[in-house]
Each structure stands twice: as C-alpha cells, then as structure tokens.
Amino acid sequence: MSTRPLPRLTRRSALGAAGLVSLGVAATGCDDPAATPSARATVRSTEITHDVALAVDLVAGVQRSVTLTTDVVRRFPLLRPSLRPLLETQRAHLALLAEAVPEQAMPSPSANRVPAAADRAAARARVLRSTTARRDAFNAAAVEAESGQFARVLASMGAGLAQHLAVLEGAT
C-alpha cells in the first residue's frame, strides 16, 4: 500500500469538472428524467436544442478571442505574462463549450481569424474589447439558457472573464 498523499483537488479543477458534467448534462437533455435514452437520441439527431445553439454561437466567439489573444501574445512578447492566464481561461472555455456542440455544427476556426493590431497598446486594447464582448455574451446566454445547469456554467464563465478584465484593466 502506497503512503503517498492523495493529490490535492484544487478549486479550479473541481469547478472545471463540475462545469463539464453540468454542461454535458444540460446540452444532451439528460436533465429530463422522463425521457428515455432512445427519445433523447432521436431529439439530438433531428434538431439542435436552444442551449446547443447558444453553445455554437459562443464557441464561434471564443474561437475568435483565442485566435486574437494567441496572435497578440505571439507578436508582443512583453504582453505574454499578463495575457497568458486569460488565454488559458479562453482555451478552457472553448474546450468545455465544444463538448456541447455536435461535430456537424462546430464552427470552423479558420473562419474566425481576427488580425492583431500592429501597435502593442492597440493590440492589448483589442484583446480587452474582445474579452468584454465574450463576458457580455456569456452573461446574456446565461439569461437565455433553458437549462439551469447550463446557465450556471455560462454565468461562471462570464464571471471568470470579469475577473481577468479587472486585473488587466487595473494593470494599465
């Protein structure tokens, strides 16, 4: 028997796991205990639910934000330390949302190309505007979501981006 201590569960990993489970349950319609597996499969194969449509729209926006932030970090090395945590959050949001989107409905990342500005200050400002737009989109989608679980995940994503914005705007 090993005497190694168990790995610590961090707040971030616990929230991420809970969010992934909630998002999967909400997006697949599993929160309806009366629905049979075959009924859920039929619904999923013939139509996209309101919440999945929200997720598709959010994925496209987050893809644009990830592309923009990646380009800015690549072009302006001095911005890497301040933008890397935001980029990690954006990528986590994208991975989580992608779990709710059927492959045939997944937006193409190449269609979401957003060029970074030539000036470092302008590029940083563009990232902040993009992040503000994503925060607002998450908050609006949380209000529109039909599933309470999905709404909570989206609100949490919006709150996470609000925290990044507070730090980045305070560092100007």
Brief descriptors of the model:
single chain; 172 residues; mainly alpha; Ferritin; 70% helix; globular
Word description of this protein:
The chain is mainly alpha-helical and 172 residues long. The chain is 70% helix and 0% strand. Helix 3 (50-75) runs antiparallel to helix 4 (80-98) and helix 3 (50-75) packs antiparallel against helix 5. The radius of gyration is 18 Å and the shape is globular. Mean pLDDT is 80; it is low at 4-15 and 25-46.
The percentage helix is over 70%
Query: How big a fraction of the residues is strand?
Result: under 5%
Largest sheet: none
Secondary structure tally, helices? 6
The N- to C-terminal Cα distance equals 53 Å
**Can you tell me the CATH class?**
Mainly Alpha
What CATH architecture label applies? Up-down Bundle
Can you tell me the CATH topology? Ferritin
SS-based structural class? Answer: mainly alpha
Total strands: the figure is 0
**CA-atom Rg in angstroms:** 18 Å
Q: What's the pLDDT, averaged over the residues?
A: 80
Short description:
The chain has 172 residues and is mainly alpha-helical. The protein has one domain: Ferritin (Up-down Bundle), CATH 1.20.1260.
What is the fold's blueprint, element by element?
Blueprint: H1 11-28, H2 37-46, H3 50-75, H4 80-98, H5 120-144, H6 148-170
Helix pairs in contact: 1-6, 3-4, 3-5, 4-6, 5-6
